[in-house]
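Running low. Any example?
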Amino acid sequence: MKKYFSLMLLFVLALPVWGQQNKNHEVSSDVKELTAYHDVIYPIWHTGWQQKDIKFLSSLVGDVEQGYKKIEKAVLPGILREKKAKWEDGVKKLGVCVDMYKVAASKSDSVSLLNAAEKLHSQYEAMVRQIRPVLKEVEEFHQVLYMVYHYYVPKDEFEKTKEAAAKLKVKAEAIEKAKLPERLKSKEESFNKIRINLTAVVDKLNQVVKTGNNKKAVDQAVDGVHAKYQELEKIFD
């Protein structure tokens, strides 16, 4: 009996830790199966394709296929739920590249295999860009907003929403100071306009929560922040 109670106590004490770890995973934009596939893509691109080593490329067919099967079964973390449709489309396109790679390798068609390796690499990179945040400042903002939008507001956890609103203000200010990488300079004008608007709706949210727990007003203010964040993300689609 004592052993039973000891086990139950350990289980209860572990629940908060498990819950926090689960939340941490949910707000991470990493898909471990896609990250792991880099170990397959790297030698294909930097050794096999660069050196035109057809024998080496052919030897990697098994790794290419097994890694892809894991990506097919991957479950996106909650923070990427709005990218599910694009992710699934990307997985299908990656599958086409994998099939091309396998066929070319089976026929010992060197030209087709090199082309397939290039397309496989290109599609993998496209999928990484698809889920990778453009800026760490944008990712950090989204991590806070995700908890507010999907947990605190639906559960009417006002104090947590109020604390998060203050954090969002800090994160929005960091976005205002952030610099786009050179490859995205063409997006700078749109980015500057939206990030100023994002700060404005975050300020409005903070004003609303200071007046007390008016659920309707809080919901509307959070919806406004979420909508503006989506506009910000759409710039980089």
The domain at 136-234 is CATH 1.20.120 (Four Helix Bundle (Hemerythrin (Met), subunit A)). The chain has two domains: 32-131, 136-234.
